[in-house]
Amino acid sequence: MRVSVTFRHMDNSDALRKYAEDKIGRLKKYVYSPVDAAVVLSVEKHRQIAEVVINAEKMTIKGREAT
After folding, report:
1. DSSP string, 5-52
2. Cβ-based neighbour number of residue 55 at 10 Å
3. Count of other CB atoms within 10 angstroms of residue 59
4. pLDDT of residue 43
5. Lower CB count within 10 Å: N or C terminus of the chain?
């Protein structure tokens, strides 16, 4: 599983990168390989946003959460 983590409008943090990779890594047992995951963590006007796009064989999963 290849996971890429991108930070927008915030400092690059190894702890956040590791956390995102660990959470996405849990999906290995549910999807077939090859799997590519792209995580974008950003801050806009005091809101924290996480966007995830997972490309697996024959399916694409997209998600977005803002707090």
Report:
1. EEEESS---HHHHHHHHHHHHGGGGTSPSP-EEEEEEEEETTEEEEEE
2. 15
3. 10
4. 95
5. C
Percent of the chain scored above 70 by pLDDT?
100
Q: The tokens 């966007």 sit on which residue? A: 51
Counting every residue written for the chain, the total comes to 67
User: Of 10, 2, 1, nearest to 40 (Cα)?
Assistant: 10
What does the alpha-carbon distance between residue 58 and residue 18 come to, in Å, rounded to a whole number? 27
Relative to beta strand 47-56, strand 59-66 is: antiparallel
- Write the pLDDT tens digit of every residue in 6-55: 999 999 989 999 999 999 988 888 877 778 999 999 999 889 999 999 99
Q: How far apart are CA 27 and CA 29, in angstroms?
A: 6
